[in-house]
Structure formats: structure tokens, C-alpha cells
Write a structure and sequence with these properties.
Strand order of the largest sheet: 1-2-27-26-25
Number of helices: 3
Strand content: 35-45%
Largest sheet: 5 strands, antiparallel
Number of domains: 1
Radius of gyration: 26 Å
Helix content: 10-25%
CATH topology: Neuraminidase
Number of strands: 27
Length: 382
């Protein structure tokens, strides 16, 4: 009898353990199912929309949102991922450290050159995935500061410390470098799709270098000076839809415009603290109607010009909130006229939309009655 009793107790204990384990498993699965969730809204609207210029002018620039960390992708969390997190813990959230340049491609991928992290962050907004691109070991980025994209998917990355431009294919595979021995301190980049040429603002050489389809140096533009066509630490370049080249001539506090023949045509701005002047001009970009957008890190603002050099408006101010900047640097504008701005010391990329005024969907900002500047940059007098 005692032996039978002991056996009964053993069976009872085994059954209890099994039931407890099963209960725990069911509870775990239910918890994981509860943690699973669909993808979130990428850029939820503000309670109060933010636009520029202020009334009574018709708004043209509209705040959309920001990307600062991988959490901002708001990726879906399927059941399997939620279950894995219960046992292995959540994936670390990775963020921008010192974003300097931005690019955007036709697959809705945002590229961010980060000088402090020494990587190019890649945010895939459709797939809600994140990658880091860098040269293969033992090579590495030292100071990635400039980005440009070719129509075939290649990404160009300027490293100002090593004096080269790295090339990556559309999958992130390193496919070579350009400019070794020809560049001193490459910064801003712009790829001319029609001519298959890469324009490089070489701040250390005070000139713009032009490379051909195979990476050969075709020509250089400018030398150090203050005359038209000369530069004093050029930091960025962009080519508009008419083939005109714009160069941020940083320490001369101006933007220079060159024709398709690369002859100097126009100077935009000069040193000062009023609208239409510059203190620390940096990134430049053009929209679909060839308006020129210029970031000034000292004003913590973006100034917008017509291709004829007329100041149209300005937006932004110093701060940490939406539409505010702290030493912004780079800007790109995608095919839908969405602005992506590297807000460097706020460690984020801010996103804005440009929309033409309702009365004209072509070039109204240049010609409309309310085409004057919006809020003045910091330190400016309206």
C-alpha cells in the first residue's frame, strides 16, 4: 500500500508540472499575441498644423515629421517577433548622432551621412527596415559628410578626412572609390544624370572637381579668391533641371550660379544678418520648379530663392521643436517636392512638403502678390 501511495503522488506531481508548464506556455503565447501589432503611421499629423509663411500669405512649406531613431520607422511587430522579444529581449533602438547630409531614392529609402557614427544610415520607409552602409574592412569612413545618388541606384559618399568619394550599389555593396590623389577635402556632391558627371565641392582645394562616368577627373572649376568663379571653402553643390550649377561658397557667404557651360552667371547673397544675406551657408537643394533652398546654420533657417536670385521666403528658427533647428547642415528634395533636412545638433532629419499656392501650380512663388519672404532668420530685421 505505501508503494502504491508513493506512485500516486508521483503521478499527481508530474501531472501538476505538466499542467503548470502548459498554462505558462499558453500565457506566454497569449502575451506575445497581445504584443504583436501592425505598422504605425509614419508621420502622424500635429494637433495644430505647422506651415510657412504665416497668414495672410498662402502657405507653401508644410511640416510633416521627423526621423531620429529606428523606432521612428514604426515597423510592424508580427507574432514571431513579439515571441522572440519575450525570451531574448527587445532589439536596441539605434539613432542618429551627427547627421550631416541626406539623400532619398525612388525606393523610398532615406540615406543619412553621420560623421560621429561614421556610417551611412539607411531608413527604408516602405519596408520599415534599417541598415548601416560602410566600406568593407579594413577600410572605414572617417568623416562622411556628403551624399549623392545616380539614377542607376549608385550612392556616392564623400569622406572629407580621407579625401575620397566612396561608391555603393543599390544593395549597399561597396563598389570602389573615386578621387584618390585628386581631392583634398571633399564635401558636397551632386550627380549630373544627363552628362553622367559627378560634381564635388572640394573645400580644401577651394574648387569644384568634375569626374566622368568611370571616375576619371575631367576638369576643375575655380580657385581661391573672392571674384566671380572663385571660392573660399566651397561646401556644397547642386545641379538644377536646366543644367545650372549652384555652389555654396561658404566663407565668401554667398551662393554662386554657373551656366551649363560652367561660366559664372549670378551671385546670390552676401555676408550679413538680414533676409537675403548669409552667415554660415551650408546645404543647398532645388525643387521641381528650380527654386533654390539654402540652409544657414547660424540663422538656424532655410532661405528660398528663385533661379534669378530673388528671395522668396524663409522658414525655421533656433530650437528643438517641430520646424526649429540647431546647426542644420544638409538638405535634399525628392521627386515629390518633399524636403529632408539634416538637423545636426538635434540629431534628427526633419521632413517638410513644398506645395505651390492654389492659384498657380507652376511657379507662383516667383510671381504671386504674396511672394515676399516669410519669417526672417534669427538676428534679422523684417
Amino acid at each position: 500500500m505505501p508503494a502504491i501511495a508513493r506512485g500516486s503522488n508521483s503521478i499527481a506531481c508530474s501531472t501538476a508540472r505538466y499542467c503548470g508548464a502548459a498554462t505558462l506556455l499558453v500565457a506566454t503565447l497569449l502575451l506575445a499575441a497581445g504584443c504583436a501589432k501592425p505598422a504605425g503611421e509614419l508621420f502622424p499629423p500635429l494637433a495644430v498644423p505647422l506651415s510657412w509663411p504665416n497668414p495672410p500669405d498662402e502657405p507653401r512649406i508644410h511640416y510633416v515629421g521627423q526621423i531620429a531613431t529606428t523606432a521612428d520607422l514604426k515597423a510592424a511587430k508580427p507574432f514571431g517577433e513579439a515571441l522572440r522579444e519575450l525570451f531574448a529581449g527587445k532589439k536596441p533602438i539605434l539613432g542618429l548622432v551627427s547627421p550631416m547630409a541626406v539623400e532619398f531614392d525612388d525606393q523610398r529609402r532615406l540615406y543619412v551621412a553621420d560623421t560621429a557614427a561614421r556610417v551611412v544610415h539607411v531608413f527604408d520607409l516602405d519596408k520599415r527596415k534599417y541598415e548601416q552602409w560602410m566600406p568593407p574592412a579594413p577600410d572605414t569612413f572617417i568623416t562622411p559628410v556628403g551624399l549623392a545618388r545616380a539614377g542607376d541606384g549608385r550612392l556616392f559618399v564623400a569622406d572629407s578626412s580621407t579625401g575620397v568619394v566612396w561608391l555603393f550599389d543599390s544593395t549597399g555593396r561597396s563598389i570602389g572609390m573615386w578621387g584618390l590623389g585628386h581631392l583634398i577635402r571633399p564635401c558636397g556632391l551632386s550627380f549630373d544624370e544627363q552628362g553622367q558627371r559627378l560634381f564635388v565641392a572640394d573645400a580644401g582645394a577651394h574648387r569644384v572637381a568634375i569626374f566622368g562616368p568611370g571616375g576619371e577627373l575631367l576638369a576643375t572649376l575655380g580657385s581661391r579668391g573672392t571674384a566671380p568663379g572663385s571660392f573660399n571653402f566651397p561646401t556644397d553643390v547642386v545641379i538644377d533641371h536646366q543644367g545650372r550649377l549652384y555652389v555654396t561658397d561658404a566663407l565668401n557667404c554667398r551662393i554662386q550660379q554657373f551656366g551649363p557651360d560652367l561660366a559664372p552667371r549670378l551671385q546670390i547673397g552676401s555676408r550679413g544678418d538680414l533676409p537675403g544675406y548669409f552667415s554660415r551657408p551650408k546645404g543647398i537643394a532645388v525643387d521641381s520648379t528650380d527654386h533654390l533652398y539654402v540652409i544657414d546654420a547660424q540663422f538656424e533657417a532655410v532661405q528660398v530663392y528663385s533661379s534669378a536670385g530673388q528671395l522668396l521666403m524663409a522658414f525655421g528658427r533656433e530650437g528643438r521643436g517641430p520646424g526649429e533647428f540647431w546647426l542644420p547642415a544638409g538638405i535634399c528634395i525628392d521627386e515629390s517636392d518633399r524636403l529632408w533636412i539634416a538637423d545636426t545638433y538635434n540629431r534628427r532629419v526633419q521632413v517638410f512638403d513644398y506645395r505651390p499656392p492654389a492659384q498657380s501650380q507652376t511657379d507662383a512663388p516667383d510671381t504671386g502678390p504674396n511672394a515676399g519672404p516669410g519669417p526672417a532668420p534669427k538676428g534679422a530685421t523684417p
